[in-house]
Specification:
Elements lengths: L7 H20 L3 H17 L6 H18 L2 H18 L5 H16 L20 H11 L8 H11 L1 H4 L2 H12 L6 H14 L10 H17 L4 E3 H7 L5 H13 L5 E4 L4 E4 L21 H6 L1 H16 L3 H104 L2 H9 L2 H6 L2 H34 L4 H49 L2 H132 L5 H46 L9 H6 L1
Antiparallel strand pairs: 1-3, 2-3
Length: 737
């Protein structure tokens, strides 16, 4: 017999066993075994599907809190106490104010006694270990049913939100005020000491004594933090005066732990026995969020936060100086975004439509696939159901046939037994039969049938015959031995007489057997006639029974035929509906494809028309450019011809001038010197010619500049005309234009 671990009874028995194991482990102070039992209980609660009673959960959290306290996990101990309080308050609606105040006070002091920082130093976070401390914290959180590890600040928020502070005793409310609200480092330890004295002297508050030691350590940490916000350094003896319940060694241990856990920036100067708060700027690490009363930051913290403060002040100044700057920038950015949207909205819209269409097609495909799978699964289920029904019918039919067969065999066996008894009684009436039956016991008689007994009877007769023959032969040998061969006739007589005796014996035996057979046949006929008479009276009942049985079978057959026809009609309607849906889906899909093809053809026609119009426009621009180029080429040819004529005129003038100068020089060398007046007149003429030449040169320069300007204009026009040239056969280029 297998054990079902998923049954409710088994899970409840396992849970009760683990709870008893946890109780005995706590009584024997076997805290490691208690922790294992807690893990087993949590595993059973997670594995079980039923909701456990609040009483069971309250008992579980109470014992879990004790295990956490003994293990030194004060934070998880406080969380377990809080869970136990919430369950107890929800479970017991008629709690008295005194009982509720005691429970709330215990929750409050358990939360206040939790450490102010992590339980491990910062450098331990970077050490690789087989089991990470964070993993252990997560496991402990799972035991409490929490998805995230709890913190001291979160527990305090839960206390304030659930009204536990208001339900606690007045002394506990004052304790919360001193530790978490008031900033009075000079009176803090004295107030905590007075609270501890009250708890020790009062019997009603004696259940809070276990938290006093941890509470004093928390008070010392609060004292150090508050003093660090006021003083940059303080004498160690003065600090001892502020903490009267602490010893120098305990206070120094608290200071070292605060520095180790990076909760406080403090250095101890053992030569002057002073404490220096704060640190070098290079040693300042990332700050932590302060909880509890806070007056001001230390100078090192102020320097560390200087850039952040300056950033916030500069941001406020920018908002005051230029309040509309962000608005203007946002408007400019908005206009750019709108412009970019206007440029890309059509493309984005088409892309969104295509994506939406693809999504719709995908959804239709998935729905069709899901429908096909559902139909296939339904068909499989129906086929399996029909097969199971068929197998069940076959099994019932086989069982029925087996029952009828057994019934018939029993009836045949009873008839055979009755015949056997009759044959036995007949056999017992004969002498040989009596002998055979006397040699058999009751078990052998029951196991043997009549034929076997008859065979035994025949074998017994054969045995007697053989014994008789052997006895006669023995007597014959004796007689021959005694009498000898003296009288052969006598011996022959004896032989013939023995043969006669043997024949007579056989004849007698056959007559007896024949008489027995005839008697048995008569008895059988008599018994058969009795059975016939007895059964003839039952013929009417048999006919009635067979008629009722046939009617019942026919009604069952007709009912099954009707059910099958209904099932067949329903199946036919289902398949017709499925085929109809499939045809509708196919028609819808073909219609969508036709629409898509038509839209694609329309888009292709529009794109082809745009390409044709663009090609015609480019051809017209090309023709206009060629005509303009022809005009410019004609103007250029005319300008070149005019320049050529001007150059020819200038060259002719220069040749003429050189000829005149050569002739004049020749004349001057041939004739004697004439009067000055003639020289002056010739000089005047030469100067006049020089002036005319200068005028011609200046005119030529002006015409050249004009021609250069025209060339530049013509070149610019050529550059402008080169623009619309495109390869008309390139459709992509035409589309880009």
């Amino acid at each position: 017999m297998s054990l079902d671990l998923t049954s409710v009874e088994t899970q409840q028995l396992n849970l009760d066993t683990r709870l008893v194991q946890l109780d005995f482990a706590i009584q024997l102070e076997l805290w490691h075994e208690a922790y294992k039992a807690v893990e087993d209980i949590h595993g059973l609660m997670t594995f079980s599907k039923k909701t456990f009673q609040p009483k069971t959960m309250s008992n579980y959290y109470q014992k879990l809190a004790l295990v956490f306290w003994k293990s030194g996990y004060h934070l998880f101990h406080a969380t377990a106490i809080l869970k136990h309080f919430q369950l107890s308050r929800d479970m017991k609606k008629n709690l008295s104010p005194e009982e509720l105040g005691k429970m709330a006070s215990r929750v409050l002091i358990a939360v206040l006694a939790t450490p102010l920082s992590d339980t491990r130093p910062e450098f331990d976070q970077f050490i690789e270990m087989e089991y990470s401390p964070q993993d252990k914290v997560v496991r402990l959180s799972l035991l409490l049913g929490l998805s995230q590890p709890p913190t001291r600040s979160s527990l305090i928020k839960d206390i304030l939100r659930s009204g536990i502070l208001q339900a606690a005793l007045p002394e506990m409310q004052d304790l919360y005020q001193h530790l978490e609200v008031d900033f009075e480092p000079m009176k803090l330890c004295d107030r905590i000491q007075s609270f501890a004295d009250t708890v020790c002297s009062s019997d009603e508050l004696s259940f809070l004594e276990q938290y006093l030691h941890t509470l004093k350590d928390i008070t010392l940490v609060r004292l150090l933090k508050q003093v660090s916000q006021i003083y940059s350094s303080i004498c160690f003896n003065r600090l001892l005066e502020l903490a009267p319940f602490s010893s120098p060694f305990a206070l120094e241990r608290i200071i070292v732990e605060c520095a180790r856990f990076n909760d406080l920036q403090v250095r101890i100067d053992h030569r002057s026995r002073t404490l220096h708060f704060g640190s070098e700027l290079s040693e300042v690490s990332g700050g932590k969020e302060e909880d509890g009363p806070h007056l001001q930051d230390m100078p090192s913290e102020q320097i560390r936060n200087q850039l952040m403060v300056m950033t916030s002040v500069l941001e406020r100044s920018v908002h005051v100086i230029a309040p509309d700057k962000m608005k203007v920038e946002n408007n400019a950015l908005r206009s750019k975004i709108i412009e970019a949207y206007q440029h890309s909205k059509v493309r984005d819209h088409e892309r969104i439509l295509l994506r939406q269409k693809a999504i719709e097609n995908r959804k239709e495909y998935l729905e069709k696939k899901a429908y096909e799978l559902a139909v296939e699964e339904e068909n499989k289920k129906e086929a399996a159901l029909r097969e199971a029904q068929l197998l069940e019918e076959k099994r019932l039919e086989a069982e029925k046939e087996e029952r009828e067969k057994r019934k018939m065999e029993e009836e045949i066996k009873q008839i055979q037994q009755r015949h056997m008894r009759d044959r036995m009684s007949q056999i017992a009436q004969t002498e040989i039969g009596k002998k055979v039956l006397d040699k058999l016991d009751e078990n052998e008689i029951e196991n043997l049938d009549a034929d076997q007994i008859m065979a035994k009877q025949v074998s017994e007769l054969e045995k007697e015959r053989k014994e008789l023959i052997a006895r006669l032969k023995t007597q014959e040998r004796k007689w021959i031995t005694w009498n000898g061969p003296r009288d052969k006739k006598r011996s022959l007589f004896f032989k013939s007489s023995s043969k006669r005796i043997l024949k007579m014996t056989r004849y007698v035996f056959w007559n007896e057997k024949e008489a027995d057979r005839i008697h048995e046949a008569k008895e059988d006929r008599k018994v058969s006639l009795e059975h016939k008479g007895r059964l003839s009276r039952m013929k009417e009942d048999k006919d009635v029974y067979l008629g009722n049985l046939l009617k019942e079978r026919r009604s069952i057959f007709e009912k099954k035929c009707e059910e099958f026809n209904k099932f067949l009609e329903g199946e036919r309607l289902k398949r017709l509906a499925a085929r109809k849906k499939i045809r509708e889906a196919e028609r819808r899909e073909s219609w969508i494809k036709e629409k898509e093809a038509e839209a694609q053809r329309r888009r292709d026609a529009e794109m082809e028309e745009e390409r044709r119009l663009e090609t015609e426009r480019l051809l017209k621009e090309e023709e206009a450019w060629h005509e303009k180029k022809k005009e410019l080429d004609a103007i250029e040819a005319k300008k070149q011809e005019r320049e050529k004529q001007i150059e020819e005129k200038m060259m002719a003038a220069e040749e003429k001038l050189r000829a005149e100068r050569a002739e004049q020089q020749q004349k001057m060398t041939q004739r004697p010197r004439e009067d000055p007046s003639a020289d002056d007149s010739s000089n005047w003429r030469s100067e006049k010619r020089g002036d005319d030449r200068k005028k011609d040169m200046s005119r030529t320069d002006l015409e050249g500049r004009d021609d250069q300007n025209k060339r530049r204009d013509f070149g610019g026009r050529r550059d402008f005309g080169d623009g619309p040239r495109r390869d008309l056969g390139d459709r992509d280029g035409a589309e880009e234009i």
